[in-house]
Amino acid sequence: MEDLFSDAADRSLERSAPLAARMRPRTLDEFVGQQEAVGPGTVLRSAIELDALSSVILYGPAGCGKTSLARIIAGVTSSHFTELSAVNSGVKDVRSAIDAARDRLGQSGRRTIVFIDEIHRFNKSQQDALLHAVEDRLITLIGATTENPFFEVNAPLISRSRVIILRPLSDDDIRDILKQALVDADRGLGGAVVLSPEAEERIVLSAGGDARSALTSLELAASVAPPDADGVRHVALEHVAEATQTRQLTYDKSGDAHYDIVSAFIKSMRGSDPDAAVYWLARMIDGGEDPKFIARRMLIFASEDVGMADPQALLISHAAVKAAEFIGWPECRINLAHAVVYLALAPKSNAAYVAIDEALAEVREGPARSVPDHLRDRRRPGADAYPAYKYPHAYPGAEVEQQYLPDGLEGRRFYRPSGE
Fold first, then answer.
1. How far apart are CA 309 and CA 113, in angstroms?
2. What is the distance between the alpha carbons of residues 97 and 260, in angstroms, rounded to a whole number?
3. 48-74 residue pLDDT tens
4. In whole angstroms, what is the distance from residue 102 CA to residue 139 CA?
């Protein structure tokens, strides 16, 4: 009787679950997108289908299918499947799962897969607790993370696992997922909702490659669209706009999206594309980036990439730094945009940047070199015996031939103006 009530409760919970949870793919054939990682003929798909999976870390943005893929593996494998969340599990839970896996293997010969969601939240001791069990293949680890595992997961654990990179879903993938939800009578909306083309495009655009976000938007928009006489809800653009009032683009100020967008920003200015540079600036502003960070990057760029081709760029960038410090958001966006456009359109030269790095390499790797005697400080004992220093201002044009580099570097050029 208890099992009967438990099954009924599970079915009730499943029916009341959010659309995104109900529409999770159950098989590899239902899994949309990520063909490079899990498409037919890939190593990962073959390992899953043959139940020969080794430890993997699934790395990708939210809503790209990491948890869904782990649950598909749970459904098709003959291994026991244990799920832990790094948010509320500790070393004790990890060790308990490993002990249970050891007992299971000894008693029935059945292997265990341990899935850890958000594994990057585990600290070093928690990750270390997994090492021997993974190395001895007592467990097969499936970790899921939105953060770069090469920075957030211990190197020993990385070396014992295969990192699988999952990408944001394409717009076509999101459309396919929406269509499945609209027609699925068992888990989805089963024809009770009609989505206009404009509404569909708005959901796809707002999702930004996140299937969970797209399905949540669809469910919310359907809830605000009034039913017609037949009970069918016709979701129009205004219903989606009401349900998804802000578009959430991926931007984590300490994660990969941050570094990728900053990189695109710098490279757009370097490539003299003001439109792209302003776009990436807008992405950082919208993501809540610190304006002082943006301005500092521009100050570096002014000398690294514009340099002597337009020395004024350094002053413009410094003014942007002061504006970011003194004014702040939202007004300083105008100052930053002013400086970004200037830097993007400025002529480019990295000659000063190359010069200092070549000089540093010579200092660090070359022999120790002495200051030429005629350049030495005249206040030191015995300075009267030094050769005379030629004071440039005493010569026409304030120029005079004399050696300034140390012996052994005569004629060496570190600064070479662009175009030479």
1. 59
2. 37
3. 888 888 888 999 888 888 888 988 888
4. 8
What contacts 95, CB < 8 A, 6 or more positions away?
Answer: 129
For β-strands 80-85 and 112-117, DSSP reports them as parallel
Q: Per-domain residue ranges for the chain?
A: 34-165, 171-243, 256-345, 369-420
Tell me the C-alpha distance between 104 and 84, whole Å.
18
CA-to-CA separations, 357 to 11, 84, 313, 354, in angstroms, rounded = 66, 49, 21, 5
In CATH, the architecture of 256-345 is Up-down Bundle (1.20)
Which residues are CB-neighbours of 28 under 8 A, at least 6 positions away? 38, 45, 48, 49, 72, 76
The CATH class, in words, for 171-243 is mainly alpha
- Do residues 27 and 180 make contact, with C-beta atoms less than 8 angstroms apart? no
| pTM to 2 decimal places | 0.61
Beta bridge partners of 163: 57
Task: Average the pLDDT over each of 118-132, 259-273, 355-369 and give the range with the smallest value.
Answer: 118-132
Q: Token pair of 4, please?
A: 């009967």
Tell the CATH topology of 34-165: Rossmann fold (3.40.50)
Strands of 112-199, DSSP E: 112-117, 139-145, 162-165, 193-195
Bridge partners (DSSP) of residue 143 are 57, 116
Q: What is the pLDDT of residue 273?
A: 94
CA 340 to chain centre: 23
Helix (H) or strand (E) holding 40: none
387: phi then psi, degrees, rounded to nearest 5: -60, 150
Contact yes or no for 333/274 (Cβ under 8 A): no
Q: Which two tokens stand for residue 163?
A: 């990192």
Q: Using alpha carbons, select from 252, 320, 244 the residue that is nearest to residue 287.
A: 252
Ordered DSSP codes for 260-319: HHHHHHHHHHHTT-HHHHHHHHHHHHHTT--HHHHHHHHHHHIIIIIGGG-THHHHHHHH
